[in-house]
Task: structure prediction
Amino acid sequence: MNFQAPKGVSEYLPPRGALFDEVREAFAESARRACYGRVETAVFEETSLFVRGVGESSDVVRKEMYSFNDRGGREITLRPEFTAGVLRAVLEHNLHRGALPVKVFTSGPAFRYERPQAGRYRQFYQFDLEAIGTEDPAVDAETIAVAWDAYAALGLSRLTLLLNSLGDKQCRPVYREALQKFLRALDLDADTRERIEINPLRVLDDKRPEVREQTRNAPVMTDYLCADCKAHHDAVRGLLGGLGIPFTDAPRLVRGLDYYTRTTYEFDHALLGAQSGIGGGGRYDGLSEEIGGPPLPGIGFAVGLDRTVLAIEAERAGADTAAAAGCQVYGVSLGDDAHADVLTLITALRRAGLRADMAFGTRGLKGAMKAADRSGADFAVLIGADERSNGIVRLKDLKTGDQQDVAAAAVTGWLLERLGTK
Ligand code: HAM
Result:
């Protein structure tokens, strides 16, 4: 075969796909418990939604979008993130005219033309959650708690929550100017100088030591917050304390998308190296107006599912990460006549809630038993001519090798008794 996946596409195959599912489900479950509702929105949108929503000064819009003209000449972009599209859908379908906040979650692929490396892909997966229509700082804390509890349910412990406030349209411009003034006086390369004029906050995010060194004493937003933003920020910090969620104040935390206001946060994982951000989010109180909607504050986060999978693998190093999703029972037919009986039995076991598979194809008893071992199942069920005529099945414990016959009518109960609680 001459084909490979395009460069930078993140793919999952068994058994790793089970871990991917586990991660997505942990976040969905945490969101459902907080009464967020599932949405599915467009994978591609009008390009201008992202240009106006995510922002012209962001790297995402400037360099990373998968944009094309469709056959009708429309300018289309594959979503580089979910927030703009989710808000577009909420506004389009008038959910914001009902009870507020509108609380929704979704997940799926997103696309950014980035330089691929470990943990950074061009097609990657996010779980995204948004609470739209309230400025209440309690909802800021709620979104963080939903993410925090999902990470905890997945057993992740090497996690740091970084918290910052980016101010609002009153205080941010004042800060921006002060920062620009500071940065313009530094000895920086042409690209960085250009960035000072377009998106000065991003300069604080520069990882190069020579830039870091120079920006060490740069002014930070938290020192410029107006009274309302400061009160909001203090409230969020207090609420997180009350929820027992530890956080680190990160006054230099800058997010890569232009729509953020006030609360911003990131979840960093200690074992992932350069791509350590496994999730991030914040408020976007001006986004609705930016895309032509009414004033409507909002907050949310997106988790990088790929990076969360990598974080789990790093923390569980050596452990069998997908054991929980393995097969429990494996059916083997001795002779063609019994094949249909095995399929019937296996189907009955599945309907009773067990994970069951069987040997397909004609590979003989030896090959079938090898497949049974390889499946990781706890028991093999064997049916041949003798078993059929006697109304029994043979059960083999694949861990101990013990065998015993059980009446065909009783086998589901027998297996459920031993495996049903797993
Ligand atoms: P973001 O920080 O751009 O925020 O992305 C969120 C997460 O997606 C990151 O923390 C990272 O784990 C993952 N991610 C981003 N780019 C890549 C990539 N190229 N490869 C692998 N993983 C990646 C947003 O997207 C916002 N929409 C979050 C949000 C929701 N803010 C408010 N509501």
Notes: The radius of gyration is 27 Å. The domain at 16-171+225-315 is CATH 3.30.930.10 (BirA Bifunctional Protein; domain 2).
